[in-house]
Specification:
This protein has about 375 residues and is an alpha+beta fold. The protein has helices at about 5-15, 20-25, 25-45, 170-185, 190-225, 235-240, 255-265, 270-285, 295, 330-340, 365-370; strands at about 65-70, 75-80, 85-90, 95-100, 110-120, 120-130, 145-150, 155-160, 165, 225-235, 285-290, 315-320, 325-330. A five-stranded mixed β-sheet has the order 9-8-7-10-11. Strands 1-5-6 form a three-stranded antiparallel β-sheet. The model is unreliable at about 350-380 (pLDDT under 50). Bound molecules: zinc ion (ZN). Zinc ion binds near residues 302, 307, 322 and 323.
Length: about 375
């Protein structure tokens, strides 16, 4: 059965289920499209020789939400400075939802589509705005050049020696999480108390995720706002946090320790930091340079003489035997990635061709948004 078979059946379904008429045809079609995509992906994976799970039936309880794919059937009204009202449907059946806050794109931004999601018993609406390019511009307050190194001990270390502490949300909330999970384990499965504790656990997970996202948003914004050039290394949290368990033939090394480290790596939100940096930098006309980690080896290279100085993870200091350069390890890495885009010395494999392309500067934008007097106190 194809998407179009189902779409053509909608009028008959609506005749039996009048509540679907109120929802509007576009929302129904969008849901069918999502279903179609799930099956297309399933067949694609089967064809590729993988073993995907069969798309499961989503009961009302599992149904995560639906979308209005175009500006019809709903309306977002902004009330002055803050606050807005979202109207779903029309006429008597219309539903009004009050919203907090406001977007930063001004009157030119037009609401384009919405997705209504349900999580932990709460409903959320995500609104996509169609925005003219000029309205995306971010203000830059200074024109520093910064190299930075993301890590676990310090969430970020900069080339000038400053650092940002790692808040370690998971570590802080883990005892609470464990306690809830222990309590739930004592309850009978399917009971009201078991369910209630399940919700508490989900809410705590949510809280940690929200704190993390908020933190990364704020920190990356500060970095972009104060810098004209940002340099860091490409990261692959997925590879970094691979399990140490290994296989039967090559059994793992210290699994527990690696699991702990993995938890910290994933908890720090690095996977989120780079995409955020990329789009924020583009909006501010900031150049983001991502060094090729494997070829540059920022944590092993000496920022003074460009030699490779092998170290283990536990060595916190960079001590260079050839030139005598001594510096905290992370700061040295930050300096190496900052030098990398301008480096003219011969680094095998880090020539222009081998280097990842820096994100293109937005045409002529940086000059118009950079304030004349750079702020004296950087915020990172
Ligand atoms: Zn050196």
């Amino acid at each position: 059965m194809s998407y179009y078979d189902q779409q053509n059946a909608l009028p008959q379904i609506k005749a039996y289920r009048p509540e679907f008429v109120e929802l509007g045809g576009h929302a129904l079609q969008q849901t069918l499209r999502r279903l179609d995509r799930a099956f297309q992906s399933f067949f694609r994976r089967v064809k590729a020789g993988q073993t995907p799970g069969f798309p499961r039936f989503k009961s009302a309880k599992r149904f995560s939400g639906f979308a209005y794919p175009d500006p019809a059937g709903w309306k977002l009204m902004q009330h002055g400075g803050r606050g807005a009202t979202l109207r779903l449907g029309s006429g008597d059946a219309a539903l009004s939802i009050r919203a907090r806050g406001r977007h930063r794109f001004g009157a030119e931004a037009k609401p384009n589509d919405i997705t209504i999601m349900r999580r932990n018993g709460q409903s959320f609406v995500s609104v996509t705005l169609r925005v003219p390019e000029s309205a995306c511009v971010r203000q830059r307050t200074a024109d520093m050049r910064r190299g930075m190194d993301f890590g676990i001990t310090d969430w970020a270390a900069f080339d000038d020696g400053r650092t940002i502490d790692n808040p370690r949300w998971v570590r802080v909330d883990r005892p609470k999480l464990a306690a809830l999970q222990r309590q739930r384990a004592r309850k009978r499965k399917g009971s009201v108390r078991h369910k209630r504790l399940g919700h508490d656990i989900a809410r705590l997970h949510d809280r940690i995720a929200n704190l993390r996202r908020d933190f990364v948003h704020k920190k990356t914004r500060c970095m972009v706002q104060s810098c004209a050039v940002l340099a860091t290394e490409q990261l692959a949290p997925k590879t970094m946090s691979r399990s140490a368990r290994g296989t039967v033939e090559t059994p793992g090394r210290p699994v527990r320790q690696k699991a702990g480290l993995n938890r910290e790596i994933l908890s720090a939100g690095f996977g989120m930091a780079h995409p955020m940096l990329a789009y924020k930098a583009e909006e501010a006309g900031t150049r983001l340079h991502l060094s090729n980690t494997r070829q540059l080896k920022p944590s092993q290279r000496c920022s003074a003489c460009w030699e490779i100085v092998p170290k283990t993870l536990s060595q916190g200091m960079h001590i260079c035997p050839p030139c005598g350069h001594v510096m905290p390890r992370d700061r040295n890495s930050a300096m190496v990635v900052l030098i990398d885009p301008h480096n003219t010395q011969d680094t095998p494999g880090t020539g222009l061709a081998a280097r990842p392309k820096p994100l293109p500067r937005q045409r002529g934008k940086s000059r118009s948004v950079t304030r004349e007097t750079p702020a004296t106190t950087p915020c990172v």
